[in-house]
Design a protein that fits this description.
Order of helices and strands: HEHEHEEEE
CATH architecture: 2-Layer Sandwich
Number of helices: 3
Mean pLDDT: 89
GO biological process, one term: translation
Shape: globular
Number of domains: 1
Strand content: 35-45%
CATH topology: Alpha-Beta Plaits
CATH class: Alpha Beta
Protein name: Large ribosomal subunit protein uL23
Family: Belongs to the universal ribosomal protein uL23 family.
GO cellular component, one term: ribonucleoprotein complex
CATH superfamily: RRM (RNA recognition motif) domain
Structural class: alpha+beta
GO molecular function: rRNA binding; structural constituent of ribosome
Low-confidence stretches: none
Helix content: 25-40%
Distance between the termini: 16 Å
Radius of gyration: 15 Å
């Protein structure tokens, strides 16, 4: 399966946090994805871009907070994250670029 341009539109960036690092011990990777991305689209994009087999995809939407930007009230945008579980023996090193 070759990478198509729309696969790059689905995955925004990898999420590198303490929680995301803990999931990597259990063959998991966390990506920020576009808000309209579906689980089958995410699975297809990860398999095509990284050449791995995906076992499961779980998604979560983090609602944007209201924050002050230079004294003005502003709102952070909503973020959709995909927790991708890989098949045994497959790994993705998110510290390197695409």
């Amino acid at each position: 399966m070759s990478a198509k341009p729309e696969h790059y539109d689905v995955i925004v960036k990898p999420v590198i946090t303490e929680k995301a690092t803990l999931t990597s011990e259990n063959n998991g990777v966390v990506f920020q994805v576009t808000n309209d991305a579906t689980k089958p689209q995410i699975k297809e994009a990860v398999e095509a871009l990284f050449g791995v087999k995906v076992k499961a995809v779980n998604t979560t939407i983090t609602k944007g907070k209201t924050k002050r930007f230079r004294g003005q009230l502003g709102r952070r945008s909503d973020v959709k994250k995909a927790y991708v579980t890989l098949e045994e023996g497959n790994t993705i090193d998110v510290s390197t670029g695409l």
